[in-house]
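AP-1 complex subunit gamma (Oncorhynchus mykiss), 810 aa
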Amino acid sequence: MSPSVRLQEMIRVIRGARTQGEERGVIQRECAAIRAQFRQADNGTRSHNLAKLLYVHMLGYPAHFGQMECVRLIASPRYNEKRVGYLGAMMLLDEKQDASLLITNSIKNDLSHSSQYVQSLALCTLACMGSAEMCRDLAPEIDRLLRASNSYIKKKAALCAVHMVRKVPELGELFTPAARSLLSEKNHGVLHGAVVLITELCERNPDTLEQFRKVVPELVLMMKGLVMSGYSPEHNVAGISDPFLQVRILRLLRILGRNNDTASDAMNDLLAQVATNTDSSKTAGSAVLYETVLTVMDIKSESGLRVLAVNILGRFLLNNDRNIRYISMTSLQKIVQTDHNAVQRHRGTIVDCLKDQDASVKRRALELSLALVSAVNIRSLMKELLLFLSSCPPELRAHTTSGIFNAAERYAPSQRWHIDTILHVLTTAGGDVRDETVPNLIQLITTATELHCYTVHKLYRALITDISVQSLVQVACWCIGEYGDLLLRGECEETEPVQVTEDDVLDALETVLQSHMSSPATRGFALTATMKLSTRITHNVDRIRSIVSIYGSCIDVELQQRAVEYNALFKKYDHMRAAVLERMPVIDKSSPGHTNGESAGGTIKELEPTKLTQEIVFPQEPSNQVSDENDLHLHNVFNNHLFLILNSMISSDRFFFFVSIAPPSVTVYEKNGVTLKLQTDTQTDTGMTVTLTATNSTDGDITGLTLQAAVPKSVQLQMKAPSGDVIPAHGLGQVTQTVLLNNPNKVGLHSVSSWSPHACAHPQWTKNELLPPPPPSQVSLKIRVRVCYTSQSSVCQDTVQIDSFPSTAW
């Protein structure tokens, strides 16, 4: 290819290259020839060579060496060379290039040129790549051209002024008078440029905005003229008179009418006229109507006009163009909170868009459908959403399930409907639900006390049907563990009961434990459920003990920990198993969490365990928390409940806690059917942990039980919150309370004449005063306990002195 080849020939050769390497070779040779000719004197081929270089630049190859040639061509007196030079400046130069400063003077000269086409070249270039410095220098020239008589130049100058205002906002004051005068022009191009300039000025300066609000009537008349004008071939687009100018005027009216009653009232009639007279069958008409809707929703319009705007968006939903349907739902999404009833009328059309093949339209329809859910339509709309969930694409499943859960929680007509809905979602898309779904459902089930039988039957059927959905299996295991006795009873009024045997339930839980699909967390739920059933069944306790013991050597540390703890409960604390494994109380979701046997603000450092002759080493539970809104795993909840009863066995300072052989309890009080027993659970060099257990052998419940304690001032005492204040009749339950005693100096008193009373049955009794010890002496510890309770409507109060403590620590 010779250096003098024409542009068309160069393009043909480059396109004919078979490989990228061949293409690079052609371009390198041509660029070398262009450089050589640039170094020569003016031979009339500069514009020709720069045009070829611009094509090379468009292909992505470096062309920076042509920047100075652009400057030379712009300074040329020939129009053909100026045209290529200005084109090259717009493509190769920007405000960061030093060469751009060299063309400032040339642009200024060309703005005063006698030819409108040369002026147009300079205006286009300045509007494209003018820097802030160039804008400041040339702003007076642009203001002069805005007042020129030539419409062709004025429309170019208006767009150039828009660029200058964006670069240097303070120049807006200079262009404001000229922009106002341009509104009286008849040329649509000038009007378009003027409206764009005024819009930019109003958005940049609040004072200018107030000034241009006075021209709202003039803009309204201009818009009416466009709407009511007859056919004009010059401006007609698909039957709409200059839709581009109409859209720009509507956008300016929206800015002027925002938060202004006077301006809004002046344009209400116009907007109604545009909304009713514009044909939406073509894209141009749809664009004008869409801008009209945005204006109606943004200004202080009348309620009837807002309903009309929503109806226009509803018609857009029926359009075959997916882009129009998409923007319609996007707009409805923005106004659904303020005009809920108006949007609600188009619910059927919106729900139909859930079946659209386009993913973007389907996502918008889903978001809008969820926003339309209310207490009135929750049942009908939820059916549609559940139907959509069964066939929705995977990327929308998580969003759909989350939206359904939120809507059900806010507007559920009944607890049974709420539970059924969530279980349906778990069955359909259990693998896509969020982590908090399981604890939230468990909290819901615990509060619906009258539905426990119904729920456990339904979850049992789901469990034996499919164990692949982990979230559903976890909730099912939790319910079976808590309410397994209701399942075995086989009586349920809400649903058809299932005749289930103890072996059937244990087989189902063992299947979950042994399944390769079960996660470690799911196995933890199943193991804890199995353990809880040991107090709810009668004939298969040995089988449960066998199942639990198997997992004592499980490779999963968490599961192994649970199994070891449960084995210890079977072997060493079997007398406490019924109390430990009782049903969980109703969980209050509104509270962020409640302490496990500790009063607010009162903390005490756990005592170091002594070396014991027989001990079992357990991994420590990391938290005392019974329940939390975001962390309600059953095995953690159960073990926290276990630690509430066995709190003396936990050391919060170590990774392990030790359980020694429990000494026999001592009866310290027995009166009116109430028995109070004391047991020293843990002993250290300087202290001990004591558990007080109250039982009731009468025919009626004992209520209002409180225990208060007093010890010598040399002893530090902390009483933790009791497990309750009601003792069930006939020995069916018990109330326990833990007492922490500490004697740092291993001293006591010769007498018990000076006492430090403490109480912790209620929050107001949680003050713990740690008094300094008196001079050393060696006597055994004594403690006084005041017992208060109500039996058969009679208040009883007694005080007992306890001195049956081992002398090791005292």
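The longest helix spans residues 20-39. The chain has 33 helices and 13 strands. ok done for today
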